[in-house]
């Protein structure tokens, strides 16, 4: 997204952002769409019925979701002039949600706080709505139409585009199921072999964590981790998996040649590895559950 021109996170938007767009004539683009009104303009001569107006707006949301995501700015005319509007009677997020509730799957959005002009003589606002790229494409509008964002417009999707998206959706679904399987396998193994205090009289449970398969499954599901907060969790998960691999390699090298590791005896190596695998597995289990809370992944 063109974050060099405006914040990609609408939480950071203020009225100054609206003025910046206007002062610099920032045009609509693949990631940016201006809308003068949040509600149907009953007081103006409109070339669309209320139903057509709502359908057109719904398609804007689905087009962004089927593309790479983007931002809808309400309270900005096509001429790139600020046009703050009177806020609706109820909460603005409720109004926005009405435009996406019948999409399939439901478009994921984030609505900014009202962007208030500095004038003391107005109660008008603007609004920025972040539309996230869909993790399950294609997204269908309520009239069963499919649109995608191309440059600064929404375009009907061709049969070839739809077929390609359905194939990709099937691939992603299979990848998600594989990831859930690998995480479930780890969780079950953790509960059976690792969760208790390490038993230093036993061989470390090296096979209890298949970090290679789990790492591969995570890499096949990058579409699930577009949110920055989730990305941080996944980076930490990958780091833990790397540490587990390192602990396994060190144990294997020590078993073959104690002189190649920084331990005086097999007993000490065994003890250290037990504790490492235990601590790392506890961290991994906790972090995977954090990921579960932020995604639609299902596992025990």
Automatic annotation (TrEMBL):
<dbReference type="InterPro" id="IPR038461">
    <property type="entry name" value="Schlafen_AlbA_2_dom_sf"/>
</dbReference>
<dbReference type="Pfam" id="PF04326">
    <property type="entry name" value="SLFN_AlbA_2"/>
</dbReference>
<protein>
    <submittedName>
        <fullName>ATP-binding protein</fullName>
    </submittedName>
</protein>
<keyword id="KW-0547">Nucleotide-binding</keyword>
<dbReference type="InterPro" id="IPR007421">
    <property type="entry name" value="Schlafen_AlbA_2_dom"/>
</dbReference>
<feature type="domain" description="Schlafen AlbA-2">
    <location>
        <begin position="28"/>
        <end position="158"/>
    </location>
</feature>
<dbReference type="GO" id="GO:0005524">
    <property type="term" value="F:ATP binding"/>
</dbReference>
<keyword id="KW-0614">Plasmid</keyword>
<keyword id="KW-0067">ATP-binding</keyword>
């Amino acid at each position: 997204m063109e974050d060099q021109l405006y914040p990609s996170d609408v939480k950071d938007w203020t009225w100054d952002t609206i003025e910046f767009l206007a002062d610099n004539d920032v045009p609509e683009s693949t990631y940016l769409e201006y809308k003068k009104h949040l509600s149907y303009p009953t007081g103006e001569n409109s070339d669309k019925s209320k139903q057509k107006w709502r359908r057109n707006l719904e398609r804007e949301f689905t087009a962004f979701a089927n593309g790479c995501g983007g931002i809808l700015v309400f309270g900005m005319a096509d001429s790139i002039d600020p046009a703050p509007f009177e806020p609706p009677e109820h909460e603005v997020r409720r109004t926005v949600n009405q435009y996406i509730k019948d999409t399939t799957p439901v478009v994921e959005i984030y609505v900014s706080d009202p962007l208030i002009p500095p004038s003391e003589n107005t109660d008008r606002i603007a609004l920025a709505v972040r539309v996230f790229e869909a993790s399950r494409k294609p997204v269908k509008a309520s009239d069963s139409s499919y649109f995608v964002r191309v440059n600064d417009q929404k375009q009907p999707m061709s049969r070839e585009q739809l077929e390609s998206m359905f194939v990709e959706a099937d691939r992603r679904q299979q990848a998600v199921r594989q990831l859930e399987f690998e995480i479930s396998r780890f969780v079950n193994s953790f509960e059976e072999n690792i969760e208790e205090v390490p038993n230093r009289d036993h061989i470390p449970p090296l096979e209890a964590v298949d970090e290679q398969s789990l790492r591969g499954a995570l890499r096949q599901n990058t579409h699930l981790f577009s949110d920055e907060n989730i990305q941080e969790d996944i980076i930490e998960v990958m780091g833990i998996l790397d540490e587990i691999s390192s602990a396994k390699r060190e144990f294997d090298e020590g078993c073959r040649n104690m002189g190649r590791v920084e331990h005086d005896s097999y007993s000490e190596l065994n003890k250290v590895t037990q504790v490492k695998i235990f601590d790392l597995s506890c961290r991994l289990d906790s972090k995977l559950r954090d990921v579960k809370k932020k995604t639609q992944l299902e596992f025990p």
